[in-house]
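Final paragraph of the annual report: two paired records, presented back to back.
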Amino acid sequence: MADTPQHRPARAPRLRRVGDGELQVRHRVLHGYRRAFRMAGEGPALVLIHGIGDSSATWAELIPDLARTHTVIAPDLLGHGASDKPRADYSVAAYANGLRDLLSTLGIESATLVGHSLGGGVAMQFAYQFPERTERLILVSAGGVGREVNPGLRLVSLPGAHLALSALRLPGMRLQVGLAVRLMRLLDADLGQDAPELLTLVDALPDETSRNAFIRTLRAVVDWRGQVVTMLDRCYLTEGMPTMLLWGDRDSVVPVRHAYGAHEAMPGSRLEIFEGAGHFPFHTDPARFRSLVEEFTRTTAPADWSRDRWRGLLREGRPGAGASPAAGERNLKEASERSAT
């Protein structure tokens, strides 16, 4: 059978050892703000984008092995980790712009984007704004597909969230919350799969500046009704771009049904479900996650973007847009009520 552009025969990877110094957090000042990032390895660029309240540290276990065959860049998004936390624009579009500028300063012209949760929304937005710089998309429990999201995040979007987050730092509260987490795990609740990581995110908000940045970021993508940003209306533009969706079937933050909706809306995408995993499948089974990322980047060709083809897709529009409403159309109608950033 003849090789297709997206299914080339696997090539033997060139492995290199990653030095400890490569994994340290570095900084670049962009537009007057300090941006933190980790960068390691050599080879095709692989950008790891964390979720809300998280940082590049979430990828720490994966970076050394991925960097044996790739140049891995893992930024701390503005307002997160060791990056500055100004009163600024924390929309997914602004994050995509900031990522472009950071990659430009590092001499990275194009890359495969791996985005988790909010980072998945940023990756999709980057691919929409800068398709010529996007080689592949790997979306992990990504936001920006359906309205549903964990009720706790909807509550934090309400007025008074600063007080609620501050209360979690009071003496004794950490113990009480820890007991509740253990109970959820004993009861085998889906939230119990994600609670330890979510508590770690709360611990990463030690001061008012950090909490303010977290809330501003959250309110850019979530309100009391759920997620307010969507890419469903433009997912057809990923046609021809290798795309893989990775999801835990017990995700308590972004339900796994969103994975199936995104898979249907993104032509030619690949879907991999991690059974028993929650919102952080790359923590639950890092070996499988790493293997999938390496196999996907090795066996697919980078997207071949052209201005004429992009223009043609835009003119044709979303397939079925003029058809009579059905289940998929209702989902898109719901999506159209949200921001199409």
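The closing record of the year follows.
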Amino acid sequence: MAEAAAALGQFDFAGDDHVVPFQVEGLDVRGRAVQLGPMLDAILERHHYPAPVARLLAEVVVLTVLLGTSLKFDGKFTVQTKGDGPVDLLVADFSTPENVRAYARFDQALLNKAIESGETEPEQLLGKGVLAFTIDQGKFSQPYQGIVPLDGTTLEDIAGVYFRQSEQIPTRVRLAAAELFDRDDAGKPRHRWRAGGLVAQFLPEAPERMRQPDLHGGDGDTGSRPHGEDDAWLEARSLVETIDADELTDPLVGTERLLFRLFHERGVRVYEPRAVFDRCSCSRDKIQGVLKGFSAEEIEASQENGEIAVTCEFCSTTYRFEPAELQPAE
């Protein structure tokens, strides 16, 4: 069954933790937008990340959700960074149809130094390295991986490079994360995390209209206005670039309202929203299966107080095993 489209105002707003697909027929643009609230807050607060790390991981989660929900098959989409900065590893994955998990690793001493010197922009925290996008359709196919360098630019810009290299589709990505300080129903102070994002892609019926300028430094790079880009895409991209970070995270704006602000003159349509959830894919059986592959010496070395404890880095769930549980069946 085809997805049903609706004009703004014909149905209730999607709200937090729902990805909203949209189409701007007048500009040949399609995309997805999202605001993340309770789902993201649960992921970040579980690990008590310092604010600069939480903000960075939040942007990666938004990017993963925006791209992962575009999968047309059962599988997993993973975004992972590896760099030489204070935050040396970020990983988030989306398992169809709706499950998200994420984790950050950082050096506390280097992070403290970065905070003291005011070097807490995402590109400064990540340093030099790579950003990998991995699509895994399961055991019957080989994973596809696209890798782009962490080169001191923003995650938004790096994501744009990925699309130009892998899909050759003109794409603009916007990401933002924010801390929200308010009071709960009982009047007590409350701290929460929010994030939002949007991805817009130029998809005209005539493929030749999708021509893009060469990447910076390529043979065709002139350093001037992008040559050959379609006027409709130039307009769409310019509109997307007017978005303030606050608009992406403000709970009073809402995803559909933001899309209306941007594109109403061109006839924006929104489609059925897709909910996403904070759900880890770990399980006792999976971890037990891994441990059963250990040698007797490795099992012995892993014991503490007569048991083996394994904590999932993503959801912080701890699984405990007796050594006898890990012996092969006779």
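Residues 6-11, 215-226 have pLDDT under 50 and may be disordered. This concludes the annual technical report; the extension proposal builds directly on these records.
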